[in-house]
Amino acid sequence: MQSENQARRGRAIALLIAGTGLFWIAATALGVQMGWSLRTRAFFDLAALAAFGYAIFLIYGLWRDRQKNKD
Prior knowledge:
Blueprint: H1 2-34, H2 38-68
Helix pairs in contact: 1-2
C-alpha cells in the first residue's frame, strides 16, 4: 500500500515536471511570436523556475519517505 502511494506521488511529480517544461516552451514561443515584453516573458520564466523548484522539494520529500520506509 505504501509503495503504491509513493509510486503515485512519483508519477504526479513527473507530470508536474513535464507539464512545466511544456508550459515554459509554449510560453517562450508564444511570447516571441506575439512580441511580449521582456518583463512579461521573464514572469513566465520565473513561474517555471518556481514550479521546477517545487518539484525538487517534492522529490526530496518522496526520497525521505522512501529512506524512512526502507527499514
